[in-house]
């Protein structure tokens, strides 16, 4: 999902959120375009002896920002990995770092602190209020598009130019 220009001065302004789960109880997602000024080795410090270098850490949501999530491609899955889309998995266990350190890890991985959560019906109301543009998942946007270009790239994937959308909501 891409936040629309109607969302100004908000945590989610100019973000792309990968929706992981959506059911009757609510929704759960991870913001995939807010990199932090640190990598995972710096963040974990001496907690993990063999933390692989250069794993990008994102601020992946405003809820529980001390919780770590890993999004990665599925050529390597560990016991706690959950497949969430075509060639995409979510892992919350630090065991994945051992796999990466042994050169057996996934080709693509990013770490995120926190998550985005919505209560029952909340996300649907936000979509109706022109807050979110719902787009299909694309692996390339999650792992390869530069972070600052992700909102535009995601919107462009369905033929929408965010620059042409009014920041004032309205349904005429």
**For the terminal residues, how far apart are their CA atoms?**
23 Å
What is the count of structural domains? 1
Q: If you average the pLDDT, what whole number results?
A: 90
- CATH homologous superfamily, by name? VC0467-like
Number of strands: 10
For the CA atoms, what is the radius of gyration?
Answer: 17 Å
Portion of residues in beta strands equals: 25-35%
The outline comes out as: globular
Biggest beta sheet summary: 8 strands, mixed
Structural class: alpha+beta
Fraction of helical residues = 10-25%
The ordered string of helix (H) and strand (E) elements is EEEEHEEEEHEHEHH
Instruction: Output the CATH class name.
Output: Alpha Beta
CATH architecture assignment name = 3-Layer(aba) Sandwich
Q: Helical element count?
A: 5
Low-confidence stretches: none
- The CATH topology assignment is VC0467-like
Write a concise keyword list for the protein shown above:
two-stranded antiparallel sheet; single chain; eight-stranded mixed beta sheet; alpha+beta
Sequence-ordered SSE layout with sheet pairings:
Blueprint: E1 2-3, E2 17-23, E3 26-31, E4 35-39, H1 40-44, E5 56-59, E6 63-72, E7 82-85, E8 88-91, H2 95-101, E9 109-119, H3 122-128, E10 132-133, H4 139-143, H5 150-156
Parallel strand pairs: 5-9
Antiparallel strand pairs: 1-10, 2-3, 3-9, 4-5, 6-8, 6-9, 7-8
Question: How would you describe this structure to a colleague?
Answer:
This protein is an alpha+beta fold. The chain has a single domain, classed as VC0467-like, CATH 3.40.1740. It has helices at residues 40-44, 95-101, 122-128, 139-143, 150-156, and strands at 2-3, 17-23, 26-31, 35-39, 56-59, 63-72, 82-85, 88-91, 109-119, 132-133. Strands 2, 3, 4, 5, 6, 7, 8 and 9 form an eight-stranded mixed beta sheet that branches. The chain has a two-stranded antiparallel ribbon with strand order 1-10. A hairpin with a 2-residue loop joins strand 7 (82-85) and strand 8 (88-91). The longest helix is centred in the middle third of the chain and has 7 residues, at 95-101. The protein is globular, with a radius of gyration of 17 Å. It starts with a strand and ends in a 16-residue tail after the last helix.
């Amino acid at each position: 999902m891409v936040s629309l220009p109607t969302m100004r001065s908000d945590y989610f302004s100019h973000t792309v959120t990968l929706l992981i789960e959506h059911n009757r109880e609510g929704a759960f997602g991870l913001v995939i375009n807010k990199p932090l000024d640190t990598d995972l080795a710096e963040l974990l410090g001496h907690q993990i002896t063999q933390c692989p270098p250069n794993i990008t850490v994102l601020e992946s949501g405003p809820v529980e920002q001390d919780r770590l999530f890993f999004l990665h491609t599925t050529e390597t899955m560990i016991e706690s990995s959950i497949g969430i889309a075509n060639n995409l998995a979510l892992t919350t266990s630090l065991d994945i770092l051992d796999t990466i350190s042994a050169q057996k890890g996934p080709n693509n991985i990013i770490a995120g602190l926190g998550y985005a959560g919505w209560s029952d019906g909340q996300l649907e109301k936000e979509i109706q209020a022109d807050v979110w543009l719902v787009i299909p998942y694309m692996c390339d946007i999650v792992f390869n598009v530069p972070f600052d270009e992700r909102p535009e790239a995601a919107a462009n994937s369905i033929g929408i130019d965010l620059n042409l959308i009014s920041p004032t909501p309205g349904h005429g």
